[in-house]
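Sequence in, structure out. Go.
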Amino acid sequence: MDKLVARINELARKHKTVGLTEEEHAERDRLRKQYLQIFKNNFRMQLDSIEWTDERPSMPHQRVKH
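Output:
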């Protein structure tokens, strides 16, 4: 993932300075799609690992008076 992000950033910097060739534009688009797919999959796994319950917390948060 780090190499993917590094290459995307490298292409972004080059785009801002000298511009990209058609091949680099295609590579940038492909890498962005790949990054988003990985991000979505990781986020979905995090959401899927959450256990939802209807139970109330056993110890409710109480304010301490000073």
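Check: The chain has a mean pLDDT of 89. The domain at 2-47 is CATH 1.10.287.540 (Helix Hairpins).
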